[in-house]
Amino acid sequence: MSLHKILKIVALLLSVAGIIFLAMIIVKGDQEVIDTGEGLDGFLYVAYITLAITVAFVLFFVIKGVFSGNIKNTLISIGAFLLIVIVSYALADGTPMQMRDVSLSASGAKWIDTGLYVFYILGILAIGAMVLSGVKKVIK
């Protein structure tokens, strides 16, 4: 059996399980689910299994691609990403926040700021790459 057929069967089984758990949640009613949280466990297990399968395949194909391709370019890309994370961490101020019922430590705030800065920098780089690609096409 090919990998594609196996993946289709697994996707079908997870879809059916998700539909069954969704039906169980709908039958129980919104208020009971809100009050007790019952019925969500199965739904979450389907999500966890789907996430685990996705992460496993991503890691497998990334590692396969690293060893079959040019490792120098891969290391340069990883280094550039780590540089962006380091710069973002240096830019983050990490001011602790006090919200209604939750307090956020300085360390937690710094890592959240770092994640936001990484997202902003990578977003700007992606938009810049798309604009540059479009300009190059227009020039040719």
UniProtKB/TrEMBL annotation:
Superkingdom of origin: Bacteria
Transmembrane segments: 7-27, 42-63, 75-92, 117-135
Keywords: Membrane, Transmembrane, Transmembrane helix
Protein name from the UniProt record: Uncharacterized protein
Organism the protein comes from: Aequorivita viscosa
